[in-house]
Amino acid sequence: MDASVKERIDQMVQGNTIMVFMKGNKLMPQCGFSNNVVQILNILGVPFETFDVLSDPEIRQGIKDYSNWPTIPQVYVNGEFLGGSDIMIELYQSGKLQEIVEVALAS
Asked: What CATH number does the domain containing 29 carry?
């Protein structure tokens, strides 16, 4: 991965408490998996930022290398990779996601 791409991803991940790399944006998700993540975060009522990987092929590939995770969407909380759609659903259903985001937003 190009150093400038890594730096751009670092800035987004470190600069936002909850950062979602997805297809589309929070107002108009462009795939069902991205929509699942947006809906979960909206239900929790937490602030989050998104980046549309469809708008930038370097970030689209770079984020996969950055996290060593092959799929989009990808969710980061407090600079840590949480997972994609399936993991977010599991965390939400177990109640753990609420705890994770409450701790992150309180710090």
From this structure: 3.40.30.10
Q: Per the structure, how many domains does the chain have?
A: 1
- The end-to-end CA distance of the chain, in Å, is 31
73 prior amide bond cis, ω within 30: yes
State the Cα torsion 86-92-97-98 to the nearest 10°.
160
**Tokens coding 13:** 């991940």
Tell me the pLDDT tens digit for each residue of 40-68.
Answer: 999 999 999 999 999 999 999 999 999 99
pLDDT digits (tens, 9 = 90+) for 64-95: 999 999 999 999 999 999 999 999 999 999 99
Specify if 107 maps to a domain.
no
Backbone angles phi, psi at 17, to 5 degrees: -60, -45
Classify residue 9: in a domain, yes or no. Answer: yes
88 belongs to a structural domain: yes
